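User: I'm new to structure prediction. If I give you an amino acid sequence, what do you actually give back? Let's try with this one:
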Amino acid sequence: MNYDFILSGSLRPFPDVETGSLVFRRAYSLRSDGRLDFHISLTDKRSGRAHEDAFPLYPLKRAALGELLAKAGFTDAGFYGDFKGGDWSVDGRLLVVRASSV
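Assistant: Good question. You get back a string of structure tokens that encode the predicted 3D arrangement of the chain. For your 102 residues, that looks like this:
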């Protein structure tokens, strides 16, 4: 995920994913400690029963990730906006990294 984008105010929920019998919902919320919670909900349409959970995430931005990779000995880091090597953008959904170690 591109946390530069998410932390810029784009914490809106994801679109629901529905099948004939289930609804899957996902959303982020910002915590007071700077982390994110990733909320999920799976609801059975017939019974109305839902399972909900939340997972804490550490939202690492591109610049911080680059610094950590360099400190860990990785070189020639490349940052991309998709898995085909497209340009990375603050407004993009993905951050894909390619780095090599010596």
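You can read the tokens as a compact description of the fold. Here is one thing that stands out. The chain has two domains: 12-59, 60-102.
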